# Entry
Amino acid sequence: MLDKARLRIAMQKSGRLSDDSRALLARCGIKINLNQQRLIAYAENMPIDILRVRDDDIPGLVMDGVVDLGIIGENVLEEELLKRRSQGENPNYLTLRRLDFGGCRLSLATPVDFDYQGVECLNNTRIATSYPNLLKRYLDQKGIKFKSCLLNGSVEVAPRAGLADSICDLVSTGATLEANGLKEVEVIYRSKACLIQRDGDMETDKQALIDRLLTRIQGVIQARE
Ligand code: ATP
Ligand code: ZN
# Structure
């Protein structure tokens, strides 16, 4: 059971952000045993509980005030923010620090043989993505109309499977695109991991602990620069 007096931090359970998130908390001096496959891990030496969840759940947990802090990719955070706004909500949170890991870009990619001459070429085509709101914001700004094909995985196979004309997906090296006969044609969003805090009043003790953690994180990141 979670104890309200303890600081709750949400991090990705397993995936591209989890090792770096775990290392960051460890370097802040938080002693936790994350080896067990548990949802909640309790810090041994500080009043902190770590919630280990899918990254997609982290922005909502912070925006809903269920956890105090979250470590999340800006791409997922911004997508959730736009999604909630489009549903008429006004979600709030504070960004405490951009972190120095989880770097990637959200890009448009077309089949290699597509004669891409600029984003206008995508007008009225179908684009497969897991980020419909970030994509829509970008293409709206350019005045481009598109149809989306929402996929939460295997986005890169959509053109070959005949599901879409192009894709909008995360890229780091480009190897996955190449392996699927695609080329990156436009970067629409650059992302890194960040540390966010829920909006609203924070108990004095918890805020003092957050401030201490933030000072340590600052030190850790500066030491690496
Ligand atoms: P989960 O099971 O938690 O939902 P996932 O499969 O959605 O995980 P991961 O692939 O682990 O997510 O990626 C998590 C985050 O890592 C991304 O949202 C992004 O911020 C960051 N990231 C960094 N590099 C890459 C990359 N090359 N491809 C995808 N994500 C990347
Ligand atoms: Zn995810």
